[in-house]
Amino acid sequence: MPDQEKEKPAPAAVATETPAAPAPPKPASAPEDAGQQYFFGEPLVGFDPSEITGSLIVIEGMDGSGRSTQITLLQEWLESEGFAVQTSGLRRSNLVGRDIDELLAKNAVTRLTLALMYATDFFDQMEHRILPALRSGTVVLADRYIFTLIGRGVVRGINRDYMSGLYAMALRPHLTFWLNVRPETAFGREFRKAQAISYWEAGRDMSLSHDLYWSFIRYQTMIKREFEVIAKKHNFIELDGEASVSAVNKQLRQRIAEQLGIRSTKYTPSSALSHLWR
Amino acid sequence: METQDVVQKPARTEPAKSTLPQPGRPVPSRAYPGALIVVEGTDGSGKSTQLYLLKRWLEIGGYRLHFTEWNSSPLVKSATRRGKQRRLLTPTTFSLLHAADFADRCERQIMPLLQGDYLVLADRYIYTAFARDTARGCSPRWLRNLYRFAPVPDITFYFRAPLDVAVNRILSGRPKLKYYEAGMDLGMSYDRAESFRLFQARILEQYDKMVETDNFVVLDGTIPVNKLQKQMRDIVASKIDLKRFAPRAEAAE
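Structure tokens for the assembled complex are given below, as produced in the milestone run.
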């Protein structure tokens, strides 16, 4: 499946459709407008979104969909084009990144506490990494975003409105890509990485199956269904994660080049990254 | 007379479906057999002293109870400490970290004990987050959603003391106010005592707004400790069927 081309790079007016009011693309006067235009629902305390000069590009997809590989390649390409790049991802905050690692290792944490720790981790990165970078004109490549976090909560029975309300102050990305793969493919790729499947990747906390393979497939299928719902709502650009690394990368480059106004999308990885180019 | 207001809970039966907190759904106090008593108020309002005395009274009487304090989950402790020491916390992450702490206590202590027919006493509850985090600028709507999973208390005591009384109690007893405690992160004043006063004034304002909406039982934090405690005990006895929580043998008679 090629990307579902949607001619709406700024998904601003989705939530507030008031037909009577003339909708200029950039109102930005009332704080409620800022809450909807730049964020998913509420403005973030103490932050002026009009200062943003960079671009936030999100890559979503399940474990084994090739996200990290693509981000490594995109970073090299963008840097070669002269763009400053910052990356973000789950559990990378200074505030609680390591604490979550510990909670996961001990596996003595309930779903809600874990969801809130992930939210803390997300907003710490939002405020201390993503927003400062965007203010200085940097391209931020996010390896997963709120969609994964919402999906994980929802498949564990946490109310969907609750989860999206939690992330109301998350910044709307300029582009969101979804690398869609079959769970069976993802299983093979993940297994090859570590010769094992981790407890959390397989959703073992959900008691779906005692068989690790089936637990993984069922869990990732649930997440995938959740993504199918979210994808439509938030204008995801869906890419076929089963395709080769170079083919997926080409599609990513084309769409990003359009967004950033880069003329050429030619790219061959350096020798340091050529092993990723399959 | 005394028993007129007693909350009549249904007899204890096995719940048909899970009554564990459903995140995003408020937990009505009828969903479990236990009872939840909460104290709220600004720093220095006398709430902790009063809850301690209430707890002693109930303990000496042999009632089944559990006491829980705000911001005390061991799971989240190291993160909170690090965030505060290094001043990494923003209004949003400060709020989320406390919510994670509360969620952990809620899922692992408060809800199981309420279901196990215990009396749960909480020194500060979600209203502390509503007052404090709103004072820090967080959206009230967002905060209400964040804590939607919390069981609604049977009684929420709000100890109200005038700003000067409460602030002076804290300032005279503490050598140095901590950074976040004094609301220094809000940048209202370089002087910690002054910042604390301004911050507490904002919090007090938020508490006052919740008296009606959240059914607070307002108590005057300036009257003598023993008189106040008498009032508190009378209210507890009139609103909660304490016999339910008496030692099992006596309850059976």
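Residues 93 and 121 of chain A are 5 Å apart (CA to CA). The interface with chain B takes residues 41-46, 94-96, 99, 103, 108-113, 115-117, 119-120, 123-124, 127-128, 153, 157-163, 165-166, 168-169 of chain A (CB under 8 Å). Further analysis is deferred to the final report.
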